[in-house]
Amino acid sequence: MKYEGLIIRPPSEARSLLLQVTVGCSHNQCTFCRAYKQKRFRIKASEEIEEDIREAGTTLRSVERVFLCDGDALIIPQRRLLGILQSIRENIHGVQRVGTYANAKSILRKNREELAALKDAGLKIIYLGVETGSEEVLRRIWKGVTYDQMIEAGHRVKQAGIRLSVTALLGIGGVELSAEHARETARILTDMDPDYTGVLTVMVIPGTPLYEACRSGAFVLPDTFDILGELRTIVAASSFTDCFLTSNHASNYLPIKARLPADQKKVLCLLDGVIEKGRRDLLRPEYLRGL
Predict the structure, then answer these.
(1) What is residue 202's three-state secondary structure?
(2) 20 to 30 A Cα–Cα from 209, which one of 62, 239, 252, 268?
(3) Burial, 158: exposed, middle or buried (Cβ in 10 Å; 0-12, 13-18, 19+)?
(4) What is the topology classification, in CATH, of domain 11-284?
(5) CB-hemisphere CA count at 13 Å for 92?
(6) Which of 38-52, 137-151, 201-215, 277-291 has the lowest mean pLDDT?
(7) Run of H or E residues at 128
(8) Total Cβ atoms within 10 A of residue 150
(9) For residue 212, what are the contacts with CB-CB under 8 A and spacing of at least 6?
(10) Strands 163-170 and 243-246
(11) What is the pTM of this model?
(12) pLDDT tens track for 153-176
């Protein structure tokens, strides 16, 4: 397998075969992210992708899951992407699920019928970085889409029968927009009704526009318990049909795994106890937080 640069995948894809079909991210402008800043976006050559697929098929006895890297494989034109999925099916034994990151713009480039065709070809889960439901925060972090576009993208994925996993980013509104960010994120999650929600906490990384805003004082990160307060608002104000919500990413202070709405009261009780009593002993220390 041939990889270029740092390869990133969701925690739930830890046991998946990582197949790099694109290099970098097609958007690559989010102010908080530098994951793909050293890569110029491109789609890998068909011959190179096919070679990796055939190598995996001959060297691995069985693979249940494949994850298409890098930041946005869904941007690949429909015919080529269907060809990649078909080759995975034909050459790699045992594959039950293919997943990929996607952004709202790349999802909206495909209609419902095209997404359904990808599902039938093996694409079973899409990971969408929502980050926030606040229009103002979306604008400030250069996400490149509106609330309504994000909702439409999520609905298209679900209507195609593809599982939808989204991320929300605690603290990304700063102190100034913390309450709005939490409230509107609960609203967008309710409107989108994803199958999975992964909650992360913003890490201010040198070399990003967010880092420079933090240095200048234009962005002030909420403190630990205010960030947990955002999580509480999201859990309390969101209304899901059936969503598995986690905050077990290394960036978070308090790891949580919950099925909502069934576990809502239990999660709120935990958060209230930690916040009201200032239980830092139950939180992940700063030196253990990471990306």
Answers:
(1) coil
(2) 252
(3) middle
(4) TIM Barrel (3.20.20)
(5) 28
(6) 277-291
(7) strand 123-131
(8) 27
(9) none
(10) unpaired
(11) 0.95
(12) 999 999 999 999 999 999 999 999
- Per-residue confidence band for 248, with pLDDT thresholds at 50, 70 and 90: confident
- Distance between CA atoms of residues 250 and 273, nearest Å: 22
**If pLDDT is split at 50, 70 and 90, which confidence band does 5 have?**
confident
CA 285 to chain centre: 24
Strand, coil or helix: 196:
strand
**Residues sharing a CB contact under 8 Å with residue 249, sequence separation 6 or more, in sequence order:** 11, 198, 199, 200, 201
What's the token pair of residue 73?
């494989």
Residue type, 163: R
Give the integer Cα–Cα distance in Å for 102 and 163: 13
Q: Which two tokens stand for residue 246?
A: 């986690």
CB-based burial label for 102 (10 Å; 0-12, 13-18, 19+): buried
Structure tokens at 261: 């709405």
Residue with tokens 């009704």: 193
- What is the spatial distance between Cα 133 and Cα 130, in angstroms, rounded to a whole number? 7
